[in-house]
Structure formats: structure tokens, C-alpha cells
Amino acid sequence: MTLQQLKYIIKIVEYGSITEAAKQLYITQPSLSTAVKSLEEELGIEIFYRTAKGITLSVDGTEFLSYARQIIEQTELMEQRYMGKKPSKQLCSISTQHYAFAVNAFVEMILDLDVDEYKFTLREGRTHEIIEDVKNLRSEIGILYFSDFNEKVLKNLLKENHLEFNFLFEAMPHVFVSSKHPLSKHKSVTLDDLDIYPFLAFEQGVYNSFYFSEEILSTVPRKKTINVSDRATLFNLLIGLNGYTICSGILSSDLNGDNIVSVPLITDERMRIGWIANEKSHLSQLALEYIAKLKKTIRRYGYDIE
Predict the structure, then answer these.
(1) If you write DSSP's letter for every residue of the chain in order, what string do you get?
(2) The whole model's pTM is what?
(3) For the chain, what is the domain count?
């Protein structure tokens, strides 16, 4: 086993593909595949599952990757200390549902860094993709929510994929509407109040099940529904069509301006928002710093953090 082989594994996970990793490493795909196979034979484990759709980390591979990252990080620290080697780029990847507080915490983490180079990834995506990202360690952390409706299904899915849910806070559902929406000045609204307006939801692709919906109360029948794939489109439709979406209620004027407002929704349902991580992995220092920023950001909005 060599340091180079460990770096190969890390790079494959980073790009999610042996072919793409080989391009980034400037070696041939067969050479990289041979190096990985040789390492697997030496260790007596299967690091990657290989299918027609590509590769995914095995359970043993997930644990191995965690150790590999620690070894490479410690090696780089020694090289910096004794050989004067320039620090490598700081790396950190986060996957999240569409939450302003998640973006705010990410911004604060980066602003507090004192490094010359970094390479970070923030993925706002579909619920199932978030779980897959963390399962395969393309992201160290994923942020999503439980409700009474989806908790059992999502907990079973997390357990199957060796992922752990870490509770952050409980949020009362709100609706986001345009500041010029007829209901924008109301102290609270009901689903009946919203009945005539278009409901906007983030589409979930092939996993478009109610259980994966990013919006709570997803099973409620609605006259008008528009599925979107990104935050900017959703906000534009909120303004242009007097639409609404259901969310945690946390808005950032720094990120979203003052054109969107948050109004409490009268319901007994609650969103239990938290972060997931692979139970076999050891979080990097940057990931731990991000979680600390996440908690600090949420507290600023008046929520208690356990």
C-alpha cells in the first residue's frame, strides 16, 4: 500500500468515476483501475462496487476512505512542517436541501478561513441525491428534515446506507411568498387561505415520492402545482405568479433580497431539521467547523440547538 494509491482512492470518490479521476490525475483509466484492484487484493477487501451504472463505495470502502483521508492529511502536515511544502487546497463538500441557513453557514466558514487555496462544493439538491452523496462520501455532510410523515421511511433508508441523523432544531412550517402577495401582511395563514394560489415545489426526479418531498404537507391535494429544479426559478415564480412554497421559515435578506417574505403556516406539523453523516467516516476539521457555523447561524434566528 502506498500514499499514491490512497490519493487515487480519494480522487475517485471526489469525482465519482474512475474515468474522470484518471483524466484529473493524467493517467490512463486502465492504469488507475489496476492500481485500485491491486490495493483491494492486498487488503483483502472490496473498496468499490462496480455496476453498469458506475461505481459506489462498499461498506469496507467507506471505512477505508476515512482512514486514507486521515493518513494523507497527517502526511501533508509533516511535509509542511519538515520539508516546507506548500499546503494543499482545503477540501470540503456539503449537500443540502434548499435552506438559507445552510448557505449562510457555508459563507461564514469560508470567510473565516486563512488559506491561500481551497476547493469547496455546496450542492443544493434532491433528497435522495443528498443521501447518495453522503453514502458515497462525495459529501461529508447532508442536511435534510424529518416529519411525522416521512421519518420512518427516511430513517430506514439512512439505516440501510449506514448513515446517522443528527438533530439540529425543530421548525414550525412557514410559507414563502412575494412581498406584494395578498397574504404577505398576514400574521399567519392556513392551507385554505392558500388554496387559490400556485404551490411551488422542488422536483425530486425519478424519486418523486411524497416521502422525499422537500416541502412538508406534500400529500395535501392542490389545484395548482409547479415543480422547479432550482431556488432562483422558485423565487422568480413566487414573485411573478403570486405563488407560495412551504419551508422552515428562515430567510436571508443578504442572499434573497427583500422581495420574499416568510409567513407562519397554521398546522400541527413540524420540521425536525438535522445533518446526516456516514457512520463509518471521521469528519474533517472543516466539516466540524461547518457544523459549528451551522449551529451559530440557526441560533441567530432564535432557535434552540441541542
Answers:
(1) --HHHHHHHHHHHHHT-HHHHHHHHTS-HHHHHHHHHHHHHHHTS--EEEETTEEEE-HHHHHHHHHHHHHHHHHHHHHHHHH-PPPPPEEEEEEESS-HHHHHHHHHHHHT---S-EEEEEEE--HHHHHHHHHTTSSSEEEEEE-TTTHHHHHHHHHHTTEEEEEEEEE--EEEEETTSTTTT-S-B-HHHHTTSPEEEE--GGG--GGG-SSSSTTS--S-EEEESSHHHHHHHHHHH--BEEE-----HHHHTTSEEEEEB--S--EEEEEEEETT----HHHHHHHHHHHHHHHHTT----
(2) 0.77
(3) 2
